[in-house]
Amino acid sequence: MSARERRQAASDAGLSRKRVVAEAVRLADREGVGELSMRQLARALGAGAMSLYYYVANREDLLDAMIDVVFEEIELPPEQSDWQSAMRRRAVSARQVLARHPWAIGLMESRTSPGPANLRHREAVTACLRKAGFPVLMATHANWLLDSYVYGFALQEASLPFDTADELADMTEEVFLPQLPPDEFPYLNESAAVLAAAGYDPAEEFTFGLDLVLAALEPLRTAT
């Protein structure tokens, strides 16, 4: 099919780059990015597979655009806030976005042709740290540490076999505690019982760890 024919087919199907990428994100959210193919995407859009290539050059171009959508959803660090508050809001927003798009966690740092939202996000984060007084190298250290924490937590959270504190409590009583006889695992048994009774919510661990990271970085702002 010629470029003109692909363009006409795409027009007939009411396609646009934005619509193609949005549908790809929806499919990845539902089924994972590993199963996403141009043929599957075309079927979901009710179009011919070749017509998609008028809007995305190949699968890598599609992934670049999909990751750009994810970065677009993450709140930029507010310019008028102190650096810790700004980076905390950005980190909390990133965690929420990655919970909606868990397929993206392993791709956030893999793109060699970043889109505009990706670049705007990185510029804003770097600017926040530099304006706070972090030298270039220390700002890079801080950025790597914060991203590693956010991505690592998001990855771990996505793999948990429960979604809420109530579900965890039920699983602890019905599944975990029977596997932890107190004579063999006294500390694990005690921890599981106490946390279940207290309504422990692992989701709260994110801000606990994030505050520790931010506090540890504060003295390094003026380090040389």
From TrEMBL:
The species this protein belongs to is Nonomuraea endophytica
Q: Which GO terms describe its molecular function?
A: DNA-binding transcription factor activity; transcription cis-regulatory region binding
Where's the HTH tetR-type domain? 14-74
Keyword Hydrolase on entry = no
Q: Which residues form a coiled coil?
A: none
Organism lineage string: Bacteria, Bacillati, Actinomycetota, Actinomycetes, Streptosporangiales
**One GO term (biological process):** negative regulation of DNA-templated transcription
Sorted alphabetically, the keyword list is: DNA-binding, Repressor, Transcription, Transcription regulation
Specify the superkingdom. Answer: Bacteria
Q: Which residues bind DNA?
A: 37-56
Q: What is this protein called?
A: AcrR family transcriptional regulator
Fetch the InterPro entries from UniProt: Homeodomain-like_sf, HTH-type_TetR-like_transc_reg, HTH_TetR, Repressor_TetR_C, Tet_transcr_reg_TetR, Tet_transcr_reg_TetR-rel_C_sf
Q: SUPFAM superfamilies of this UniProt entry?
A: Homeodomain-like, Tetracyclin repressor-like, C-terminal domain
